[in-house]
Amino acid sequence: CPVTCGLSSSGQDEAGGTSKGKMDDEEEEEETEEAEEEEEEAEDDVELANDEDGEEPENCVGWAKQGLCDSGDHAEYMRQKCSNACSQVGADASGSGEEPENCVGWAKQGLCEGDHAEYMSVNCKRACESTDVVAGGGSEADPFVCAQWATMGLCDEESAHSQYMQINCAEACKAAASIDPNAGMPAPFGFFELLIVIGFGYLFIYAVRRTMLVDSARSLEVKRTLGKEQVIGLGKENKSAVIGMRAEKATSRNESHGQKRSAKKDKKS
């Protein structure tokens, strides 16, 4: 009953058109959101593809040549960020790539082992595999220089250059090993030698003290007898002795006079 309800056919069309328009707007918004998500995924795929294609930091090749692909501190970073450079440098070192011109000489010197093994395995792998260690390392070391190095302790097992020295400066190392480090030094004192030294020291001190005591005794004796001898040495008059003698004579005279007087008194009585 369109008339009773107050609705007309045109009103129904307007209501239907309005609801249909809202549905179309919602569908457009959903399509827009889906398109944006697809674009973001595509950008991520492009970035990932670029990484896989070898877009790595420009220093990767240099780091790889320095052996950082195998270094314990940097290996994980290099595998993640410089995997292509590590693979390429490794292939060059072990394949047909040119190695540094010094690789063969280094390999002959035994540097494929020891402190330089990591570098050599990366940069001189073919040289290490195909070259044997030889005496002289491809060029004989100067004997004078070898002797200097040997005296500096480079032949010791603890030295980083021990392997090189044993191969290239073997004679100098043997000579250095045969030298007694205490050569030219006085022999250390043993127990008996020490006792002898102490004994001589005691005797020396005793002799000095005895001499001093004898001298002191003589000095005291001279002081006690001073004045009783008329002369001291040849032709030297001892004035004290002369005065003392005169005093003794005067005393003796007085005593004799006194005795004579006493004797006379006795006779008179």
UniProtKB/TrEMBL annotation:
Keywords associated with the record: Membrane, Transmembrane, Transmembrane helix
One of the Pfam families matching this protein, by short name: ShK
Transmembrane segments: 189-208
Compositionally skewed regions (Basic and acidic residues) per UniProt: 246-258
ShKT domain boundaries: 58-86, 102-129, 146-174
UniProt feature, compositional bias: Polar residues: 1-12
Biased composition (Acidic residues): 24-58
Stated name of the protein: ShKT domain-containing protein
Organism: Haptolina brevifila
Top-level taxonomy: Eukaryota, Haptista, Haptophyta, Prymnesiophyceae, Prymnesiales
